[in-house]
Amino acid sequence: MVIQCVKATTYVANVLLGTEADVFRNDQEIFNTLCTILGVMAVVRILILVLSISLFGNIMQLRDSLERNRVVSVVDGDSFTTSDGRRIRLLGIDAPERGRCMHEVARNRLSEFVSGKRVRLTDVVTDDYGRILANVWVGELLVNKVMVREGLARFRGQKSQIANLMKDASVQAKTSLVGIYSPQCRNTTPQTDCVIKGNLRAGVKTYFLPHCANYHDVIVDEAYGDRWFCSEEEAKEEGFRKATKCN
């Protein structure tokens, strides 16, 4: 190592000082200084190489992380699948299920926002069913909020850092009577001759006849499983039971 350093120092001395290295061989201090400089340069080169490799690795890791959040398919108005096979559900909201009022509209709208795009997920949690829930961003756009504001999903009141924003979006949709809150999906008075109200609440199916005490207060929300029936027999066939206040 010492011999190599001396040879390198001799070369540097010849090149930089334009004289014979033998003149300086007796000057140990100069050679030690030059050797130290060469050693530092070698260390700096190694550090630059290590940092370059680390930076390249970080860039690749970031690229892979972004790419795995690319949306490849939209399931419905509140869930989609990413390129790595994960199924993501929008945190704190509930869009109409297949076959219910506004389902297709909500699904198509979510698709407009996220299909083929790389999304950013925040406040990620896993529910009791193993589903991944998250607030979903496309750039600066919070998709959860827009879906609620446009009346294409309802806010379930779940606590999060953006709960107040979500509440405001929900109030705006209800006030504007858009989407699931429009007369197309939500009514208290029958639009046809079928006047029996079928309510689905917390998994319990109940129907109300016009003579029931609170009939006029009952809302039929067709976006979330409520239905109008033409006869009691029809309601019973669908698993609905007469409300206790109708007896």
How would you portray this structure in words?
The structure is a single chain. A hairpin with a 4-residue loop joins strand 2 (79-82) and strand 3 (87-90). The protein has helices at residues 2-17, 28-68, 103-114, 143-149, 163-176, 232-237, and strands spanning 71-76, 79-82, 87-90, 93-94, 120-126, 132-138, 141-142, 154-155, 186-187, 196-201, 204-208, 220-221, 227-229, 241-242. It contains 6 helices and 14 strands. The chain has 3 domains: 2-67; 71-181, OB fold (Dihydrolipoamide Acetyltransferase, E2P), CATH 2.40.50; 187-246, no CATH class. The chain has 247 residues and is α+β, with helices and mostly antiparallel strands. The strands form 4 sheets. Strands 1, 2, 3, 5, 6 and 7 form a 6-stranded mixed β-sheet that branches.
Tags for this model:
4-stranded mixed beta sheet; alpha+beta; single chain; 6-stranded mixed beta sheet; 39% helix; 3 domains
Question: Could you provide a short overview of the structure?
Answer:
The chain is α+β, with helices and mostly antiparallel strands and 247 residues long. The N and C termini lie far apart (102 Å).
The N- to C-terminal Cα distance equals 102 Å
Shape: rod-shaped
Major sheet: 6 strands, mixed
Mean pLDDT: 85
Ranges where pLDDT stays below 50 over 5 or more residues in a row are: 20-24
- How many separate helices? 6
Estimated share of beta-strand residues: 15-25%
The helix content is 25-40%
Radius of gyration: 35 Å
Number of strands: 14
CATH class of the largest domain: Mainly Beta
Count the domains: 3
